[in-house]
Each structure stands twice: as structure tokens, then as C-alpha cells.
What does this fold into?
Amino acid sequence: MKNLLISLIISASSLTVAAQSNLKEGSNSFALYTKTGEFKNLENARKFADAAFKTKKDSASVNINLLRALVYSALAVADSTRQQQYKQDPIDEAIGSLKLLDAKKARRDFPAEMDYVRQNLAGAISYKGALALKEDKFDSAYKSYLRIDSLGFKNNDLKYNLAVLSGKNKDYMNSIKYYDELIKSENPKPNYFLELAHIYELGGTKQDVLNVLEKGRAIFPENKQILFRLIDVYSANGSYDAILNVITDAIRLEPENVGLNYIAGYSYENANDLKKAKEYYNNVLRLDPNNYESNLALGLINLEALLKEPTNQDIQDLAIEHLLKANEIKPYDVNALKALAKYYTLIDDVSQLDRVNLLLNQLTVK
It folds into this structure.
């Protein structure tokens, strides 16, 4: 502010004598404000700027509007809590003059002054937006950041705020637009891809979700959050072949993650690679011996093998060990009870079969 130079050109042919005088006094007062930072000088500048803004001709003057834009944009920041009285908010006053200046292409003659006005307005509007966010007034905050955008600012921080707030206001099309610009920028961040995937879940398609996560994975191959979210989506879609392409990387990042090891086992089982499936299911049980899903899965795999080799005692022992463990963990789960019934039928254990069938009948009777 202290280094700001004001080069208002006063033309006697275009301004009244009174307007010229007020413009000169207002310019001098504002120049003093930029040097001293004293609010009284800014107030004096405001008084003269308003006095110069009287007739229709004066209100169309570039010089007078430039002074008003400078003064009111400065007031918007300096009087952020609005202790002074205004006919119209300083932000709106400054923007009104700025629109006229833009229409008359004043930037080519006053580039420093116009930048000063825009920077002040961006700061003042951002302050209002931050207050709205503290009160969870997302619609008001969104409108504030849209106003900053309309001033011509195009940085990624602004775009990110617009992306987040438009999503919170269920304006999914614009949220997607802003996030799409962010992920195509020079230095995208991993959270852009994750958050855009969430917006697509709310206002897009499953394929959109998948596409953005796969794009994020290609750019950030070591990012756990993107990789794990991608696996979640593959799993929800039943895309077990796709999981097998990435699950090893995921487990390398978190080798003791029970969920990942189970998904790996389930995916290999779906691919009919039972050796690998058992390896990962056993990994789960090493980490969590009371994991119901892996005990049941191993019980069922060995039960199917027992159907082909009914005299194989090792397979029989493994089948009953895991099925009984699953039943112990969830005594009233129908899937484990049905598997036990199948096992007892196979080995011809009538008393145990009757016990299991009795419990199954009690659980399945409506």
C-alpha cells in the first residue's frame, strides 16, 4: 500500500470544477493513507470520493470511479467488521466502480491501481467467506468465492474452495468442473482425485468413479489412499481380476492389513487359484485367528476338496477345524451351519448332523 502510486488524470473538459476539486482532495487523502496507514485519511478520501460522485456525468468518469474503487476496496479490508456506516457495503461499492472501469478498459492506463483494487476485494470477500464457513453457511461461502472468481483470480486454492463448496451445495456439475481443472493442472494433489471420486459417487456414474481413481493411481502409484479406494470400488463392482493387478502393491504398503489380505484371498478364490487364496486366508488368521470370514472360506475350500478325496484325513481335519471355528465365532450364522451339515453328511455323522439341522430349522423357520 505504501508504495502505491496513484496517477489520476484530471481533465477539465470532462469533469465539473467541484468534481475536480473533490477528486484532487480525495486522491491526496488516499495517498496519505497508503503512506501512513491512518484510517482517518481513508475516511477523508471516502468523503471526497462520494462528493465527487454526484452527477450522471461524474458517475461515468474513469478517474472518479478509480478513486472510489481504490477507497472502497481499502475500506472493505480496513473496516472488515463494518464499524462505519455505509449506504451500500464497501465491497459492492468497489465492484460497481470496477465494472465501469473494466468496461472502459482502464487497466491499460492504471494496471497497478486495478490490481490493488482486485487484491483488496479478494481479501475482503475471502474474509466473509471464512466467516460463513465457520458457521457452516456453505451457500454463502460458495457465493463469496464465486465473487472472487469473477474478479479474474485463477489460482488453484480458489478453484479448490469452489470445488469443495459447490459439492457441499449439491452443485455437482460445477464441482466436477472445478475438480477436473485441478487434476489437469501442473501440480495436482492426490486428494483432488479422491474428492472428485466422492463427488462422482453423488452425482456421476460408477465408471466416472473408476476412471478418476485409475487416473490418480497412474499419477500417484505409491499413494495408499487412492490405491485402497480403488480396491474398494473394484470389490464393490465384483472386478476381482482388476483387484489381482493391484492387490500385491497394496499389501506391500500394509502387509498386516487384515482387510486387504482377505480381499486378496477372495479374489484369488474367484480366479480359481486356490493355492494363493489359502495363502492369503491363512495370512488373515495369522493376524486375526478369530476372523469369521477367513475361517469359513478355508473350511469351505477344504470341504470342496474333501468331496473329491473323501478319505484324505488331512483335508478332513482342516475342513472341520475351520468350520467349527467359524461356528464358534458366529454360532447362529446359517452359512457356517449349512457347511457343517454338508460336512457331517459327507462323513456320515448322524448325531452331529441332527444337532446342526435342528438349529438350522429353528433359525430358518419364519
About this structure: Residues 106 and 144 are 25 Å apart (CA to CA). The chain is about 75% helix and 0% strand.
